[in-house]
Design brief:
single chain, about 425 residues, alpha/beta, four-stranded mixed sheet, binds uridine-diphosphate-N-acetylglucosamine
């Protein structure tokens, strides 16, 4: 059982390069199925969720191997259309393979991804979009059997801008005859990155990043090289860590436009933030101050994935900060762990109020989920004494090597196996 051990209280100084985005590489890996040939992915982060996607690709008969920092995928020998239950359970977002497999083969089988650590994670919108394109989906015995040999482009109006459902709709629409128009699409930058990849292999997709995405299906595809965009949530994690621990850090491989709500909150809390071409600098010199209510929202609103991270940064701020979680029903599971460190947080439904305390104390913590686990690292860096964080498999899902990165910034942090 591995643990991350942190001796808190050190200021962070230096430069660190941010990894490629988890939420971009996962749909792009599913999208490689649309082209029966080779894709080279650059800037692909080494994450356990990426390994889970690779296992799915290999199960489907595709090849995927690391060549240094590049991941080379070849789906020309794909000969299966099913994703077995144990692979579905490894990663909730594996449902994104559904649209891609249907577009390529017209047939797909997988188990239903049930609830997860963030609360129930329904896929009704994913299924509704695929049905709208003509897929026949039978839900039986916890499994999905989908047939879609004659998908036709249509208008798809999403009742809420789900990231995954937008991506699934785009992937399926690439295999449908004619034009699909997705209305009320999610506008997350990772969907734009998916579009960039799809265009690179020859698919006709436009509008990603806005709420209307158009796809002209059944285009001829070709081999491509694609660089995964920077991970805005990993960047937010390191910014929150410096804000909490104090110091001055520069992040490389960052797109500041994607971080504006996070950097605005940290600026309001008293940090100096500067953004440049591909980089961001944050300086935190004194005790932070409480900020106005933080409401999570779909992009370009404040990201739900950064809620726990900002909360961890505000634990020692002067005054009270209110958080309202609008995206997921159960996204305060990190709170009980943070309280073990002396944090003053009260939760009622979707609202959490953090009242800053002068000191946090090192404690034994267990990760509850990916971003909650990262928040524990942020809190540990600003606490007095030793914090031990267990169940770190959650963190490995989305961070390549946070111990390496934080050590590079001068943190006293290590992995113990
Ligand atoms: C993606 C991100 C995740 C992020 C989330 C919200 C990936 C791999 N994951 O997850 O990191 O936290 O966006 O920004 O990109 N919903 C339904 N029915 C559906 C689909 C979603 O009710 O069929 C609901 C969800 O329960 C949730 C909300 O819609 O309350 C938003 O979820 P969604 O945008 O789909 O998130 P994911 O794509 O799962």
């Amino acid at each position: 059982m591995s643990e991350i051990i942190i001796q808190g209280g050190r200021r962070l100084e230096g430069t660190v390069r941010v990894q490629g985005a988890k939420n971009s590489v996962l749909p792009v890996l599913a999208a490689t199925i649309l082209h029966p040939g080779q894709t080279v992915l650059r800037g692909c982060p080494h994450l356990s969720d990426v390994e889970a996607s690779i296992r799915i690709l290999r199960h489907l008969g595709c090849s995927a191997q690391w060549e240094g920092e590049e991941l080379v995928v070849d789906t020309s020998s794909m000969d299966r259309w099913d994703v077995p239950d144990h692979l579905m359970r490894e990663m909730r977002s594996s449902v994104i393979f559904l649209g891609a497999i249907l577009a390529r083969l017209g047939w797909a089988e997988m188990s239903y991804p049930g609830g997860c650590e963030l609360g129930p994670r329904p896929i009704d919108l994913h299924l509704a979009t695929l049905r709208r394109l003509g897929a026949v989906i039978r839900e039986e015995g916890g499994g999905l059997r989908c047939e879609a040999h004659h998908m036709a482009g249509r208008e798809i109006a999403l009742s809420l801008p789900s990231v995954g459902a937008t991506e699934n709709a785009i992937l399926a629409a690439c295999g449908a005859e004619g034009e699909t128009v997705i209305v009320n699409a999610a506008r997350e930058p990772e969907i734009e990155d998916l579009q960039t990849y799809l265009r690179a292999i020859g698919c006709a997709v436009r509008g990603a990043g806005s709420s209307t995405v158009c796809v002209e299906g059944r285009r001829e595809t070709h081999d491509a090289v694609h660089t995964i965009m920077p991970d805005r949530i990993a960047a937010a994690t390191y910014l929150a860590a410096v804000a909490a621990a104090g110091g001055e850090v520069e992040l490389e491989n960052v797109d500041c436009r994607h971080l504006s709500t996070v950097t605005a909150a940290l600026h309001e809390a008293g940090c100096q933030v500067e953004g440049g071409e591909g980089r961001a600098c944050l300086r935190s010199r004194e005790r932070l101050r409480a900020i106005g209510t933080v409401r999570t929202a779909a992009y370009p609103g404040f990201p739900t994935d950064a809620q726990a991270l900002l909360m961890a940064a505000m634990l020692r701020a002067r005054g009270s900060t209110m958080f309202v979680e609008n995206i997921f029903a159960n996204r305060y599971r990190h709170v009980d762990e943070l309280r073990r460190m002396g944090a003053d947080i009260s939760v009622a439904g979707r609202v959490a109020v953090v009242t800053g305390v002068p000191r946090l104390y090192g404690a034994e913590l267990r990760c509850t989920d990916l971003r909650g686990g990262a928040a524990m690292l942020v809190a540990g860096l600003s606490a007095e004494g030793v914090t031990r964080v267990g169940d770190i498999h959650h963190i490995r899902r989305g961070y390549e090597d946070p111990v390496r990165d934080l050590r590079a910034l001068g943190a006293d942090i290590r992995l113990e196996t």
